[in-house]
Structures are given as C-alpha cells and as structure tokens.
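in:
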C-alpha cells in the first residue's frame, strides 16, 4: 500500500447530538481518478465531504488529505482541496471575472489574470463571462463554482452535484472535463444521477445510513452485485403467492413492480448478452417455464443493461416511486 495515500479515511464517525451521521467509515484513495461518493439522501455524504475539506471535525476516527490531518491541519488540507458544494454560494452582484479574481486574491495566486482565463476556458464559459453572476442561468452559475474550485489548481477536487441545472449538451461537456481532470487529479464526485456516476467514475464508494456498504471499481461492483435486470410484463397481475414463488427462484435476487409489470433483478453473473437463450442455465428460459406452471403468459421480456442504479437500489434497499 502507498505509504502516503492521497486520501485516507480511518473509522470516521460523526455525531449530531444522538444522531450518528457517519458510523465507522474507512477507505483509502491512493491514485488520481474519479471516485463516485454515492448514497441516498441523509446517508452522510455531505458530512463526509465537509470532513475531507477540513470544515467539520469527526467525532471519532481520522481523515487525511495529501498527508495532512483534516482536523489538526485543516488549513494545509484546504490548500490542496477544491470544493464545489451542492448549493453553490456566489456573490450575485459581482461579474464573473471580478469574482474569480477576488477568490484568486484570497488564495494569493500568482499570474492571476492568466489563471482566471485558463479556468474559464477549461469549464467552457464562452461569452457569458462578461455578465454579473446574478444574471446567469443556473447552469452557468454551476460553471462559476467549478471554475472557483479549479482556480488554485488543487490536487483534490470534491464536487457535490456538479451538473445540477445543466442541459444535456453541457452535462456531456462537464463529464468530458471531469474524465480529463481525473487523469491528473483526484476527484470525489457526489451525484444522485447514477448514469452520470457510471459514465464518469472509475470507482464507487457507497454509504447508507452512515455506513460504508460498498467500495469497489465500478465495473467490479456491477458484476459482483448483479446489476442485470429482466423487465417482464405478464398477462395478469401477480398475486402474493406468485410473487413469493417468483422470488424463490434460484436466479432471482429480488423483484420490484406492481400489476402486470415486474422487474426481476438477477443474482450476480447469472446472465450476459452472450448467453444462448436456449441454455439450460439461462434464467429467461426458466422464467418462461415458471410462468407456464403458474398459468401466466409473458407478453414482454427484455434484459436491461447492467446498471449502477440497479446496484444502488439493491444495496440501499430503496424502492423507486411508482414501481
């Protein structure tokens, strides 16, 4: 193991009164890349990010960034971290360049004018940079926040919902930027958009109710947690006995849905697109046989691609609204 990891979190817990926001979270990041910090609302993600920025102290445990303790060496930590919070605080009456120059002066940056132009170009600001911040769209306000985080050229970027308010084209541009930055910097990306995390993040750290529930490369997490799912429409709604029978099939991890439509989440590594549909080991064939035995007809059956959203639901035991 690298003796000087970029980020090290050791048994970190945080209490707010009697409420435990974090409960013994541990992980290590040893190299640059994009790491997704995921979890449901209230899981403790924002608390953990603030601890890594040196804004909060853990109740117990220890965290270091670039070798500095986030509690006892918070100022040194902040020199190495750029932070974009979810609710991006900006001075609406300042112009974009004026604001970034002001922030750069606080950091004591050299070549400040040139650096401001560099980050504006990198976040793709375009012609909007001559406007007051208060006149910008939400998407461009996010770009100002991202430019601010990049301004001191930090080793670590902590980004909380960085694509909020962006249109699809802007989102793709920011994703490309994040992947590029991940080649030289360590990015911690918190997002509720699972497609974004799957597209950008090389590794996922997933917490739920303050506890670490997964920490793995994204591809390994998808394969190991059974990200595959079958979308099935039956000829009639399943009753309670049929639902229980379906969930007892050996290849089924769980089911979700109501009425005639059901999502069947598969256990790890059960099915891949290369499997022959007629294979005895293929759950699709077994599912058709089960339906015949239950007096049901399958009207639609399709395999959904391995999905981080499926894994997220599985590990956090959340059922999406309307399913």
């Amino acid at each position: 193991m690298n003796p000087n990891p970029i980020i090290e979190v050791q048994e970190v817990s945080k209490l707010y009164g009697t409420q435990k926001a974090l409960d013994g979270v541990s992980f290590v990041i040893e190299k640059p890349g994009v790491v997704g910090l995921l979890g449901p609302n209230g899981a403790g993600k924002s608390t953990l990010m603030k601890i890594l920025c040196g804004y909060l102290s853990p109740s117990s445990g220890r965290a270091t960034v670039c070798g500095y303790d986030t509690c006892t060496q918070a100022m040194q930590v902040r020199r190495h971290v750029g932070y974009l919070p979810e609710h991006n605080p900006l001075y609406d009456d300042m112009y974009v360049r004026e604001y970034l120059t002001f922030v750069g002066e606080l950091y004591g940056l050299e070549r400040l004018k040139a650096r401001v132009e560099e980050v504006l170009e990198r976040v793709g600001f375009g012609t909007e940079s001559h406007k007051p911040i208060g006149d910008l769209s939400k998407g461009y306000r996010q770009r100002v926040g991202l430019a601010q985080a990049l301004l001191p050229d930090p080793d670590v970027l902590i980004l909380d919902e960085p694509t909020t308010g962006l249109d699809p084209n802007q989102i793709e541009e920011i994703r490309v930027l994040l992947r590029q930055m991940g080649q030289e910097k360590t990015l911690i990306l918190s997002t509720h958009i699972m497609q974004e995390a799957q597209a950008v993040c090389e590794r996922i750290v997933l917490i739920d109710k303050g506890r670490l529930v997964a920490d793995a490369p994204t591809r390994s997490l998808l394969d190991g947690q059974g990200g595959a799912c079958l979308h099935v429409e039956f000829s009639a709604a399943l009753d309670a006995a049929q639902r229980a029978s379906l969930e007892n099939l050996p290849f089924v991890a769980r089911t979700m849905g109501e009425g005639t439509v059901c999502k069947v989440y598969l256990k790890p590594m059960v099915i891949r697109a290369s499997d022959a549909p007629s294979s005895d080991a293929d759950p699709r064939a077994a599912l058709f046989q089960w339906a015949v035995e239950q007096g049901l007809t399958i009207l639609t059956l399709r395999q959904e691609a391995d999905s981080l959203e499926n894994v997220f639901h599985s590990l956090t035991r959340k059922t999406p609204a309307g399913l």
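note: The CA atoms of residues 33 and 232 lie 37 Å apart.
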